[in-house]
Design goal:
By secondary structure, the chain is an alpha/beta fold. It folds into 3 domains: 85 residues, MurE/MurF, N-terminal domain (Udp-n-acetylmuramoylalanyl-d-glutamate--2,6- Diaminopimelate Ligase, Chain: A, domain 1); 213 residues, 3-Layer(aba) Sandwich (UDP-N-acetylmuramoyl-L-alanine:D-glutamate ligase); 135 residues, Alpha-Beta Complex (Protein-Tyrosine Phosphatase, Chain A), CATH 3.90.190.20. Helices cover 33% and strands 20% of the residues. The chain contains 16 helices and 21 strands. The strands form 5 sheets. Strands 8-9-7-10-11-12 form a 6-stranded parallel beta sheet, sandwiched between helices. It has a 6-stranded mixed beta sheet with strand order 16-17-21-18-19-20, with helices on both faces. A 4-stranded parallel beta sheet has the order 3-4-5-6. Helix 8 packs across helix 9, helix 13 runs parallel beside helix 14 and helix 15 runs parallel beside helix 16.
């Protein structure tokens, strides 16, 4: 956590201050008066429905020793240490970038349409075997979250693994220039944010923005099976940049590609030829997670982690919840919770996983709407339905208006009585609970806004 004097904070944030105690030490920061601890800097951010300036006095009363104050706000309190800035968010971002540049830390930045959080967890786990590592907590991956994560770094942090999310052009460039990564990763290019960006090529352009802040001589690790990334790099004349390119993917022309993938009860084993032919194991289900693990391996090798430590880190990874989380109900029913988010690419990966899964009496799938897919959203949903195979699944449940099209696609292959379509979540839960038995497995997946974790909890 940032620990600097008040005068240093003023200089690092580009602010100004009068009548303050310059040698007063700031220990940490807060943007929320509900979590104020003594000694911190309070940062009053402004949003569509809130303005932190209303709570500056409360923050000081609770122990904050100073606060930012945006110049366009009238009536600043006179009885506390204030740092005056043009924009509190930009001041926080500048402070975070300045702090990052004062630390002897390697930054790994991760973006992509799918797999960001899983890859972040895998990278952090592998690197933690050899370094003091900090990773993005939860979903703090935007223009608020990335600077907060940077300001949370301890002085002795050796590697920080930062997730970078976006919804439009320019956002990843901003985050990359804030963090100045030594290593940048693109996990894949999917269909998420098609509504805002209009095409997969434009999504690729938005993701490749991550190299804009990449440090001189840095390493760019990307999904080599995606030709759009190469096309965008060609547009940017990326060969003229001083960076090392490393590709991972299924195809054998990548520097890192998997061999001998085998699904096990609670995880997946595989080999990578460049790791002395060792068998690796991740406690995650699905070939798509093997691909995420390849990115982690590439980072680890770039930072000099031994093959033995890589093997150890992959096998002991602790995952952020709701990413194909295997859960067991008291009844014996197995639930695969993948309710955090959904896109066509991640839907396909989850379906493939369930199709290939063995050892259960029957397999059911619950699918909710995929959001922000633009004008072709109905067709995307219909295509997902056509991928479902009746010889591998005992029933299909859909939830939401758009998921009607998943159900319609499924009915092309399934008997009508095996496809259950709902717009009421309670009715879906009641129907599903009346069908499943102890030795069955149910996969639950949908966009975050559908809140399908409620289905998971009911099943458990």
């Amino acid at each position: 956590m940032i620990n600097r004097t008040l005068s240093e904070i003023v200089n690092m944030s580009g602010g100004s201050a009068t009548n303050v105690e310059p040698d007063l030490r700031i220990n940490g920061f807060s943007t929320d008066t509900r979590t104020i601890e003594p000694g911190v800097l309070y940062i009053p951010l402004i949003g569509a429905n809130f303005d932190g300036h209303y709570y500056v006095k409360d923050a000081i009363a609770k122990g904050a020793v100073a606060s930012f104050w945006q110049n366009d706000h009238a009536n600043p309190p006179a009885d506390c240490n204030l740092i005056f800035v043009e924009d509190t968010l930009q001041a926080m971002q500048q402070l975070a970038n300045s702090y990052r540049n004062q630390l002897n830390v390697k930054i790994v930045g991760i973006t992509g349409s799918n797999g960001k959080t899983t890859t972040k967890d895998l990278v952090a786990s592998v690197l933690s075997t050899s370094f003091n590592v900090h990773k993005t907590i939860g979903n703090l991956n935007n223009h608020f979250g990335v600077p907060m994560t940077l300001l949370s770094l301890k002085e002795d942090t050796e590697v920080a693994v930062l997730e970078m999310g976006m919804s439009d052009r320019g956002e990843i460039e901003l985050l990359s220039k804030l963090a100045e990564p030594d290593i940048a990763i693109i996990t894949m290019i999917g269909d998420s944010h098609m509504l805002q960006l209009g095409s997969r090529k434009e999504i690729a352009r938005a993701k490749v923005e991550i190299i804009e802040g990449l440090r001189l001589g840095g390493t760019f690790i990307y999904y080599g099976d995606e030709p759009l990334i190469e096309e965008v790099l060609e547009e940017l004349n990326a060969k003229s940049r001083n960076m090392n390119n490393i590709r991972f993917g299924v195809q054998e022309d990548n520097e890192y590609y998997p061999q001998h993938i085998q699904m096990q009860e609670s995880g997946t084993s595989f080999k990578v030829g460049t790791l002395a032919n060792a068998t690796l194991y991740i406690p995650l289900l699905g070939a798509h997670n093997v691909t995420n693990a390849l990115a982690a391996i590439a980072v680890a090798k770039a930072l000099g982690v031994s093959d033995e430590k890589i093997t150890e880190g992959l096998s002991s990874v602790q995952m952020t919840s709701m990413r194909i989380e295997k859960l067991q109900a008291q009844s014996g029913l197995t639930v695969l919770n993948d309710a955090y988010n959904a896109s066509p690419a991640s839907m396909k990966a989850a379906i493939t996983l369930l199709h290939e899964l063995n050892g259960y009496n029957r397999k059911f799938i619950v699918l909710g709407d995929m959001l922000e897919l633009g004008p072709d959203e109905e067709e995307y949903h219909h295509q997902i339905g056509t991928l479902l195979q009746p010889e591998r699944l005992a029933g299909v449940f859909t939830y939401g208006a758009l998921s009607h099209h998943i159900a319609e696609g499924a009915r092309a292959n399934f008997a009508d009585q095996l496809v259950h379509e709902f717009t009421n979540k309670e009715e879906l839960i009641a129907n599903l609970r009346g069908i499943v038995e102890p030795n069955d497995v149910v996969l639950v997946k949908g966009s975050r806004g559908m809140k399908l974790e409620q289905v998971v909890q009911s099943l458990l």
